[in-house]
Design goal:
Chain lengths: 299, 367
Amino acid sequence: MAALFQLVVSGVALGCIYALVALGFVLIFRATGVLNFAHPEFLLLGAYLILTFGSAGLGLPWGLALIATIVVTALIAVSFNAVVIRRMMGQPLFAIVIVTLGFGIALRQIISVLYGDAPRAIGSPWGAATVTVGEATITWTNLITIIVTVLIVGAFLAFNRFSAYGIGMRAAAFDEEAAAAVGIPNRRIHMLAWALAAAIAAIAGLLLASFPRSAVPELSFVALRAIPAAVLGGFDSVAGALVGGMLIGLAEVSVLSTQSGYADVVGTNFHLVSAYVVLLAVLWVRPHGLFGTPEIERV
Amino acid sequence: MADLVRLTRPAPPQDYGERLRIFATPGQRAGVLAVCVGLTVFSMTASSFWISTLVFALIASIAVSGLNLLTGFSGQISLGHAFFVGLGAYTAVYLGGEHGLPFLVWLPAAGLVCAVTSLLISPFALRLRGLYLAVATLALVFLGQHLFLNLPGITGGAQGASVPQPSIGPLSFSETTQIGALELTPDRKWFLLAGVVLVLVLLAITNHVRSGFGRALMAVRDHDTAAEILGVDVARTKLTVFALSSFYTGIAGALLGSYLRVITPEFWDLFLSVEYIAMLIVGGMGTVMGSVLGAFTFTIVPRVIERLGPQVPFIEAGIAAEGLTVSRLNVLLYGLFIMLVLVFEPKGLVALWGRAKRWVVSWPYRF
């Protein structure tokens, strides 16, 4: 029972991280119609910039270092949008997607040059502490991940539902031209989408690099597994990103804990590809994901 | 002004026959011929470093041309071509290595295996569109890598497998042949082989594209519902183009594996797919020459940087070097280069070439 509880908690925690990353993908997709391939690198920025600002670098208090990390990541994303993506609006989408890919490749190398490829502990204040619930032992990292995700998602949903900018973002996602015609500042909306997505990615990166993991370049693969999460929820749906992330996280953890029993059938490390199996199964039944909008064709 | 344009530009084609010619003008034919001859002469004199660069560029051109047929001409985005390249290579390992079949059997067989596999997974290709298709093919790369790692009987697992070397009749590709004064090293033979295969593939693709099938492809790309109403069998067109594209990619994979000699599952990863897509887009989608241009640029530029790297200041050399190493600088410039080309010319290098040509033709009127 305790083992099962532990398993569910770690599955939900991983699902939370996937949900946060998927939310970033969906935000940028809704604003610009682009699958942002530089998103995994925003995650890395979150995990590595804390090294520069925190006790290992400039020695800022943890809270300030956290804020600085988030702000700098968001600034990098916003300036990328302002300098490159805005210039390319109206060009074939595919070309814009490849530009984000080029940016991601370059950014990853810059991070490698500055920080090296060896794993580095980011020194979160809760460290390796655990709490015991009944017989189950749960790391603070998992607990904080769940709490932070609930807070972020709650704040985002409220922002999306009630604030003028949130409503503007939804309007622009629905029909950009019509939104512009009624006075919604599309340029600012795009900027906001990039900033929010990058800030959320930075937080996800931080959580992902906390104990028992550490900051390594391979963290960006996690973001790649969040693409199936976003897609299986439906790429233009915020709720879809959250549900998709949770599904993928739970699937991955349950496969991880049981796969030794059937490893001769599915092979080793099957949990790393289980996300894609779930994805294909969902897309087979629903080609636009669980909550995605089916396309309406005009001829 | 209009008179001047008429003087400097060839008259537009008057009938379909003229329009469908493989080379629009005699100048184009001469240009292509000159490039082929020039490259061949270069490969017979250059050092093995540059010849191997050319061989990689030729093989990449084959793979990208296959991808172009699918993505450029019929608008189906695939991030999964690394899987088909890998599958082609492992088919070569299995048929050529394990069963000892000759080169002229395992090369086309690698293409066929890929084509059949693509038909097996094509139900997804028919149901999914755009981004959803792209991500489903992304799944193909990861699941394929998982398979390659977990089927050690065929692929050698993580240790890798050695791929057979081609030999055609008495001509073996692993030793040097002397023809008069010309020394045909294995690399030079490889250049000729890859060049011949590329020319055949390009001819085949040009012919696909200028046939009724090719027009159906472009109709599906531009608007599949409209194409269906016009009488194009969309499902059949999509299936055929998937199979054809995988066929050419599989052949490229068999060649690539064989040229690399030893292959491991990590090689066929998402980055390989991404590289091919970058070559396709930067070269120019939906044009036969664009794929070749992109593949050559992206194969040659990193090798040039690799050569010049040690001379650049701030570069740290050595195997254990941290910070700005040559390989990091290489990938960094690679990313920046993709961004720069697409920001300034989203239609790719082919469009840049067209722009340069117009500039010369309309000189001194620069408009």
